[in-house]
Amino acid sequence: MTLTIDHTKRLTLAELKSFLDDHDAKVNISKVSQKAIIDCRNYLDDKLKQNNAPIYGINTGFGSLCNVKIVDTEIEELQINLVKSHACGLGEPVPQEVVKLMLLLKIQSLSYGKSGVQLKTVQLLCELINHKIYPLVYQQGSLGASGDLAPLAHLSLPLLGLGKVIHNNKLFDTKDVFQEKGLEPINLQSKEGLALLNGTQFMSAYGVYCILQSERLNFLADKIASLSIDAFDVRLDPFKENLQNIRPHLGQIKTAQAIRTNLEGSEISKQNKTQVQDPYSFRCIPQVHGATKDTLNYVSSVFETEINSVTDNPTIFIEEDEIISGGNFHGQPLALALDFLCIAMAELANISERRIFLLISGQRALPPFLTPSPGLNSGLMITQYSAASIVSQNKQLCSPASVDSIVSSNGQEDHVSMGANAATKCFTVINNVEKVLAIELLNAAQAIEFRSPLKSSPVIENLLFQYRKQVSFINKDEILYELIQASQRFIKTQLND
Description:
CATH superfamily of the largest domain: Fumarase/aspartase (Central domain)
Number of domains: 2
């Protein structure tokens, strides 16, 4: 696919999903956005020729150095120095998929013609995507307020022919890859460094990635929970439509519908039940999974607004003849939403671990720890330990980043969002959720074998058929981490389908 960036049209999460899923996706800029970028650049050049007054970040220093006037002959050097000095990220490298999104979202933000950059600067960002050249960006270093300064500095270094990039999954010096691809670095003009570094594209990219993964995991969590329902011989009354309609949260209604669809035609579900009620971790799946779906809808709306925004500073308004220094780089809306998503997704793992505990408990005619020979074999006993450990880690990670702040830049930047930390820990939580669901899948698939010769529904039987191609029934103790990893790989294939 080729994604055309056009600031007059709203960029959607669905388009970003398609963009990420297509590893050969390319990007270009519409004619109308090209004109907007060129017009803004021309306006800024004329403004600087006609006006010697200080304009933040254009002919002044940055942060608490905003009152230091920069002479005209040093304006370009100012921008280069900014990128170099702010490239101080640490920690683990940002995944390539997230970097790809960062590049795209920076192009989108610059396409509005409010930032004063050269057209060739935006075009070179496009070329990085089109040639699959991904700047080496680090996870740590952003406070989520004065823009994602450190990560975006690393993202911008290759535009100057500096820094390192990942190409074909290998690490190279930028200049070597540029030489191979026939690309030329740019000479930054006034304001360009600041336009590249100011913005929320690190937080936004992580958030978009987390949302897309969360949507996929939510769908799969419903399917795995349906398998667990039959494996534990659960009543289906709590999933009836009339019960949901009297408490009509949309996510709850959709979850219950998914459970009913997944289990339609199940022989196990139709047999008489001896229990009057089932534990909450089964009975309340619509309420818990559904609340996560509703959270996802809210968070998605926040991020769709953000990715269709201009978030650098200062901002140029040609029609009004104004250059305004404001705070659109502040990540508070994203930080709050990311913390919310983090908590909501952690609950999917939390309730999943409770179902795992019950599946191995020796109840409902299931053998203890789901092994045919308990005692000699420990069966799946310790898988619950692993799930519990991950769930507990998630609870620790769910401490909100957005309630924190720290003073920076000599007091000039005295309230920050910590949205970048919210983003990276949300990413970790979602990866952990995938692991716990993999453990539930392993246990539920093992448990339902003891319901034979009764069959589950066609949907669940097909899921089991595909799963058994990778993970067999466990007759005696095996090295379980290999089976958990195989379950996780299976989940990834399901997520990508």
